[in-house]
Design a protein that fits this description.
The structure holds two protein chains of two kinds.
Chain A: H1 6-10, H2 21-25, H3 33-62, H4 72-92, E1 95-99, E2 102-107, E3 112-118, E4 122-129, H5 131-135, E5 138-145, E6 152-159, H6 160-178
Antiparallel strand pairs in A: 1-2, 2-3, 4-5, 5-6
Helix pairs in contact in A: 3-4
Chain B: E1 23-24, E2 27-28, H1 33-57, H2 63-87, E3 89-92, E4 96-101, E5 106-112, E6 118-122, H3 125-130, E7 132-138, E8 147-153, H4 154-167, H5 184-188, E9 193-197, H6 200-209, H7 214-225, H8 233-255, H9 257-287, E10 291-295, E11 298-303, E12 309-313, E13 318-326, H10 327-331, E14 335-341, E15 352-358, H11 360-369, E16 382-383, H12 390-413, H13 416-429, H14 434-445, E17 448-451, E18 455-460, E19 464-471, E20 477-482, H15 484-489, E21 491-497, E22 507-513, H16 514-529, H17 533-536
Antiparallel strand pairs in B: 1-2, 2-3, 3-4, 4-5, 6-7, 7-8, 9-10, 10-11, 11-12, 13-14, 13-19, 14-15, 16-17, 17-18, 18-19, 20-21, 21-22
Helix pairs in contact in B: 1-2, 6-9, 12-13, 12-14
Classes of the chains: A alpha+beta, B alpha+beta.
Chain lengths: 179, 544
């Protein structure tokens, strides 16, 4: 399951009625390391939630209220899905394309969003790095616009150098535009 | 360490070599004195929890322990503050300011000078005593402070401000949305002409449409809230009255059937009077003397009976126009027009009311001044895809499923007598499921969109009708959003990012075929690319 390449996933769009696959295939993908970032953060969340659930499960089983693992087992299954299945699918649904004075960002598995930001509408730019991202040398590019909706547009899972390169390109554009 | 300069107003050379800040690779750190301020701020926030804990534990542990604990907390705070300070640095580049920050999550922010609208220096008490100042950059985004340096030495702060003002070439001091009333000389200028005003009769008409039971609600609410102020016996009296009413209710039902009807009619009549009155009061208080004048700086609006407001709306900052009407007032040709702009209107309104009650020959000229025009006669307003109703259909299905399962469960849990009545009630509750479908259908029928070569039009609402006119060039971002069903049906919502306006209601064209959605977006983005945002909100030069 984990070994199939992103390309293979894209060739089977019928799996999840992925009507936007053709558009996304023409776009740049995030760094594959982002799958690990998603996985690790899902793991940490699951760990936080699983410990009290397992304790509660054990306590209730001890009191003969439930059979052991009646609660913990299905929840663990959900956690396993969230750690092993979802990150790759979420990763596959990300894509971006920078060209011609604009950036297009597509994202979302169940709820799909396709955003275009013209560079000359960018107010300021962040290159942000969370602790897990730093572990894998990745960064997020955060574009701030004056719009009330989409005041921040986030593109995660970029190699730090690439994020900085993109930042500089966009900034150059703002500068060139004012001349 | 800090060379405090007594006259910060004096412009200082834009080179910053003279001030004593710490530099590595042209990265500047904040003044070390900010450590003091930040530590104090954090400790001040912790003081109440600490006091609470101290109080709770004071019996169990000695005073020394509390003191030691306090010292440890202070040390940890200082440590973290130092760490954050160490990580915080800023660079003054040729075209941008770059700020790097963060202990665990790191952030590198780049703010182009071109985008900086305003630099403000802020000094509260402690920073002032220490001779340091906060520098805040505003970029016209919608989040408030987009960049803040807390804190740098006063002379360095002044340097920075000078530097940014000089580097920001062609800088125009930005005019706030709600500027102070124009000074006397401009008020005296004769060329200011009134473009729209409302006389008493017009305001009275508006008051009728503003029929509201809000006053009634306030009175009722106040009575309930102030219950405890009423004499103690009153509750008993009411109880007595209710009791006696109960006893005699049988009689009343029989004898005074007509007087009951009269009472109900009287009540309804009374409510209508209250509603009309409160509508009039509200309207007169707010709209009395409503006058729009065209001034050099934009459209000036004056209104109010007790609280006079005087606002200038610079036209180049208008982002979109909203034409509103109601089902009834539309019959009379009355509309309201609002402008969406950076920043919000006085009070809670997110858009700027330009004419609350006007005929089309009155409000379109106002819109024209902001370069927004009416849709042409032949404009093709289109419906959304019917999947727009999917949400309300799902909701109805949910209600039906709920009622169905209840009607299965109930007979088993209730005794014979109650079953028939509860089933009767349930059979009526089915009707509830009709409402979401009805509302969904109406919302769909009254949601339209259209596009011409310059503008996007979005209509919505049945009782309160609203048409938003968005010049494409004002678009910030455009999203295409699809839920699972939309992905399956190949339709998408088009969501527009606009500067200003309410953050709660995003301008959205719901459920249009994906190709149409892409067309709309392409046109908007192409238009937006042609003009930079900074130029868009700049006051046009040479235009009178």
């Amino acid at each position: 399951m984990n070994d199939d390449s992103p390309q293979q996933m894209h060739n089977e769009p019928s799996q999840d009625t992925d009507t936007n696959a053709d558009i996304r295939n023409a776009m740049t993908q995030l760094d594959p390391g982002y799958i690990l970032v998603l996985r690790l953060s899902a793991f940490i969340w699951a760990l936080f939630l699983a410990i009290p659930i397992f304790i509660a499960d054990a306590a209730m089983a001890n009191e003969d209220l439930i059979e052991p693992f009646v609660v913990a087992a299905p929840i663990s299954l959900i956690f396993l899905l969230m750690i092993f299945l979802l990150p790759r699918r979420r990763y596959n649904r990300w894509g971006y394309d920078m060209s011609d004075g604009q950036i297009q960002i597509v994202r979302g598995y169940l709820f799909y969003t396709d955003t275009i930001v013209p560079f000359n509408r960018v107010q300021h730019i962040d290159v942000a790095q969370g602790p897990i991202e730093r572990l894998f040398g990745l960064s997020s590019l955060v574009l701030h616009t004056a719009g009330t909706h989409n005041s921040t547009v986030v593109l995660p899972g970029l190699r730090r150098e690439i994020a900085e390169e993109m930042r500089d390109t966009i900034r150059e554009y703002i500068k060139a535009d004012m001349l | 360490m800090v060379n405090s300069i007594d006259t910060p107003d004096k412009p200082i050379e834009a080179t910053s070599e003279n001030s004593a800040h710490i530099i590595d690779n042209d990265r500047f750190h904040l003044s070390p004195l900010s450590l003091v301020v930040n530590t104090i701020t954090t400790l001040r926030r912790l003081i109440f929890p600490i006091l609470a804990i101290t109080y709770a534990l004071s019996d169990k542990i000695g005073f020394m322990f509390i003191l030691i604990g306090f010292a440890i907390i202070a040390l940890i705070t200082l440590g973290f503050t130092y760490w954050a300070w160490k990580r915080f640095s800023y660079q003054i580049g040729a075209e941008e300011i770059r700020i790097e920050s963060g202990i665990l999550s790191r952030n590198a922010r780049s703010i182009p000078y071109e985008r900086i609208q305003d630099v403000s220096l802020e000094q509260s008490l402690i920073p002032r005593l220490l001779g340091i100042s906060a520098v805040k950059f505003e970029t016209g985004g919608s989040e408030g402070d987009e960049g803040a340096l807390e804190f740098v030495a006063v002379d360095e702060a002044e340097n920075l401000r000078q530097l940014i003002r000089t580097r920001k070439s062609g800088a125009v001091p930005i005019v706030a949305d709600t500027v102070d009333p124009p000074s006397q000389d401009s008020a005296a200028a004769v060329q200011d002409d009134v473009i729209f005003s409302m006389d008493i009769k017009r305001i009275f008409t508006l008051g009728i449409f503003n029929f509201s039971l809000i006053l009634f609600a306030i009175i009722a609410g106040a009575v309930q809230q102030l219950d405890f102020l009423l004499p103690g016996d009153l509750g008993d009296i009411i109880g007595y009255v209710v009791d006696s009413f109960d006893e005699t209710s049988a009689q009343i039902k029989g004898i005074t059937f007509y007087s009951q009807i009269a009472a109900v009619i009287g009540l309804i009549f009374g409510l209508i009077v209250i509603g009309l009155l409160s509508g009039q009061v509200q309207t007169f208080l707010r709209e009395y003397g409503f006058t729009l004048t065209a001034t050099e700086r934009g459209i000036r609006r004056q209104r109010g009976l007790l609280t006079l407001t005087d606002v200038v709306m610079p036209l180049h900052r208008v982002q979109a126009a909203i034409v509103q009407t109601g089902l009834i007032r539309k019959r009379f040709g009355w509309h309201a027009i609002k402008f969406t702009s950076l920043g919000s209107d006085t009070g809670k309104e997110s858009s700027h009311m330009m004419a609350p009650l006007a005929k089309s020959e009155e409000y379109w000229p106002i819109a024209h001044r902001a370069s927004i025009h009416a849709p042409a006669e032949e404009t093709d307003f289109r419906h959304s895809h019917f999947s727009f109703m999917a949400g309300s259909l799902f909701f109805s299905a949910f209600i039906i499923a709920l009622i169905f399962s209840l009607s299965l469960i109930l007979p088993k849990t209730l005794d014979e007598d109650n079953i028939s009545t509860s089933l009767t009630i349930l059979s009526w509750v089915w009707l509830v499921a009709v409402f979401p479908i009805l509302f969904g259908f109406i919302a769909w029928r009254y949601h339209f969109h259209a596009m011409d070569d310059k503008q996007i039009y979005v209509k919505s609402g049945f009782w309160n009708q609203k048409m938003t006119i968005l010049p494409m060039v004002k678009v910030q971002t455009v999203d295409l959003a699809q839920g699972p069903l939309s992905q399956y049906l190949n339709v998408a919502d088009v969501k527009f990012g606009i500067a200003g306006g309410s953050g709660l209601t995003v301008l959205t064209i719901h459920n249009v075929p994906i190709d149409t959605a892409r067309d709309i977006r392409r046109n908007c983005i192409e238009a937006a690319k042609n003009i930079d945002f900074s130029d868009l909100i700049k006051e046009p030069k040479g235009v009178k």
